[in-house]
Design brief:
Helix content is 31%, strand content 28%. Strand 3 and strand 4 form a beta hairpin.
Length: 324
């Protein structure tokens, strides 16, 4: 008997459109012989499903069921394809955990922790995980430009603390540009993180649970045509994403060891994609994504293909692990 799978997508953040694309790819590739899929659009005003005839049906949030005219649909598992809030910051995870519905992403605490760049890096530092020197600001704090530069130097990166897809990020070369970059980041979040610039090779590392085993996927080297791996570079073709990365075997092994260690330290589940800057042979962690992009062109699917895994296998594996 086919399993009922809700593929949730959309969300409340600037990543809404990207999430819709990810969700559509997941729904397309899941084996319809094994799964009956229901794309569920999540917005601030409504969680809804549109069937093939165009009928719009609201999710019953009391139990996350779908009251269709032909009968109520109860879901065996939720495939989470929401980037940003509420799918990547722990809110949906906590909701499904309360309802006892299996879902493909990590647990709510891990989602909230990893979504908060500042908290993630602070948690991992005692374990010896290397990261850039950083300075924190909250909305309303006095902006002490000289103090910031004394800590992180120039150039530096100003980032929204809880945002993805490079929204709210600026590379700052001059003190005169710092204030504008800070205000841009505050448009995305009320917390920001300012990090020192690391000169090295950017590498993206997918780690997944596949058939109950933690698996590090072939790594991707990021070569941006722009000044850094910004929105244009990620989604508008302004970068090369080279899989497997052009790094030495020893560098690859070192990054894989750190990426897997982080996954295990945090007791992760499902997919993660972590970004590192390789400075010499030392990997510096930038951030971790727990609902990474899942379009055909996205980095994690590229890495799965390099590992000999189709998108259907990648997505089915996440459901099987959630159900188990």
């Amino acid at each position: 008997m086919r399993k009922n799978i809700a593929v949730i997508m959309g969300g409340y953040s600037s990543e809404y459109e990207i999430s819709l694309k990810s969700g559509a790819v997941v729904e397309k590739h899941l084996d319809k012989g094994k799964f009956q899929t229901f794309p569920i659009i999540v917005t601030r005003d409504s969680w809804y499903y549109i069937d093939s005839s165009g009928v719009h049906c609201e999710i019953d949030k009391a139990d996350f069921s779908l009251p269709l005219p032909q009968g109520k649909v109860v879901f065996d598992c939720v495939f989470n394809a929401i980037h940003g809030t509420p799918g990547e910051d722990g809110l949906m995870q906590a909701y499904f955990e309360l309802l006892g519905i299996p879902h493909t992403s990590c647990d709510h605490y891990q989602a909230a922790l990893t979504f908060n760049k500042r908290d993630l890096l602070s948690t991992l530092k005692p374990y010896g995980i290397q990261c850039a020197t950083s300075y924190y600001l909250n909305q309303g704090d006095e902006i002490k430009e000289n103090e910031i530069i004394d800590v992180v130097d120039l150039p530096c990166f100003v980032k929204a603390n809880k945002a993805g897809s490079s929204f709210g990020i600026t590379k700052v070369y001059e003190k005169s540009a710092l204030n504008e970059a800070i205000h841009k980041a505050f448009l995305e979040d009320d917390e920001i993180i300012i990090e020192s610039f690391l000169e090295g090779t950017e590498v993206s590392v997918g780690v997944i649970t596949h058939k109950s085993e933690v698996m590090v996927l072939p790594m991707t080297e990021i070569v941006s045509e722009n000044d850094f791996f910004d929105y244009e570079a990620k989604y508008l073709g302004k970068s090369q994403e080279i899989t497997p990365a052009r790094i030495s075997v020893s560098q690859r092994d070192q990054i894989a060891q750190v990426a897997k260690e982080i996954y295990l330290i945090l007791k992760m589940k499902g997919y993660t994609r972590s970004e590192f800057i390789l400075v010499g042979d030392i990997p510096y962690l930038l951030e971790m994504n727990t609902t990474p992009g899942l379009t055909e062109e996205s980095i994690l699917p590229q890495q799965a293909r390099a590992a000999g895994m189709s998108l259907a296998e990648l997505f089915e594996s996440a459901i099987e692990d959630a159900l188990n």
